[in-house]
Amino acid sequence: MGPNMRYRRLGRSGLQVSELSLGSWLTFGKLITDDTAAELMKLAYDNGINFFDNAEIYSRGESERVMGRILKQMEWPRDTWILSSKVFFGAGGKLPTQLGLHRKHVVEACNDALKRLQVDYLDLYYCHRPDANTPIDETVWTMHQLIMQGKVLYWGTSEWSAEQIKEAHAVAEKHHLIAPVMEQPQYNLFHREKVEHEFAPLYDTVGLGTTIWSLCQRCAQRQARHQRGTGHAPYRRRTRLASRA
After folding, report:
1. CB of 188 within 8 A of CB of 214?
2. Distance CA 153, CA 79 (A)
3. Candidate CATH numbers 3.30.420.10, 3.40.640.10, 3.40.190.10, 3.20.20.100; the one for domain 7-243
4. H or E segment to which residue 22 belongs
């Protein structure tokens, strides 16, 4: 891997994740060609990035298909890279069985992601949003079962509140299940409260790890127009920083 890349433990797990990752949001299968996507992934991998991030909702599943084809083409050893996906929004369907964090959708979404990405397992699997319509016990049990089946190695959350993450850990502890390891929140000059304050107690109590995402250029420019006078320039690109917070 790249000589200058640094790696951090993902929360309390033993998994070593590169500080920077390559995500496919708004790009793969939509705004760039497959050849450009392949060039980006190779450049990232050659410079030590071992974490590639995706989700079922990105380009309605096409992002995962593109990344899966590239990973197949590159033939990198499977034990040298980390792959993630996320579940909640579905891959285009709008029926209640095609969305959310209930057992049916989580299981089917995981199986579909494995097919699109052409892998036997996901290293990281995120609950992309909290689901008010599904008991959290059901979601925690389902994620635990996916891990027991070897389809997922670690599971986490994205854009959950500290209270929701604590509740998931309480369920896991009560039933001796595998708890979420990481959260993927937005973190940038405009959004600091959750990572720096709301989550602060969780870093020590449950060992929460973060794989943060920041604004893409277009989103930052749009948000900056609504928050003029802050004196901060928007981020110019979207990155993720894996950290043991």
Report:
1. yes
2. 13
3. 3.20.20.100
4. strand 20-23
* Helices vs strands, H then E, count in the chain: 8, 10
Angle at which helix 62-74 crosses helix 34-46, to 10 degrees, equals 60
CA–CA separation, 186 and 211 (whole Å): 9
- Decide: 153 and 147 in contact? Cβ < 8 Å: yes
pTM, rounded to two decimals:
0.89
H/E element, 156:
strand 152-157
Q: Which amino acid is at 1?
A: M
Q: Is 121 an annotated catalytic residue?
A: no
Domain residue spans in the chain? Answer: 7-243
Tens-digit pLDDT profile for the chain (245 aa)? 666 899 999 999 999 999 999 999 989 999 999 999 999 999 999 999 999 999 999 999 999 999 999 999 999 999 999 999 999 999 999 999 999 999 999 999 999 999 999 999 999 999 999 999 999 999 999 999 999 999 999 999 999 999 999 999 999 999 999 999 999 999 999 999 999 999 999 999 999 999 999 875 555 455 555 555 544 333 333 334 444 33
| Annotated active-site residue in 58, 126, 154, 235 | 58
Beta-strand relationship, 209-213 and 240-243:
antiparallel
In this structure, the number of other CB atoms found within 10 A of the CB of residue 180 comes to 25
CA atoms within 13 A on the CB side of 186: 11
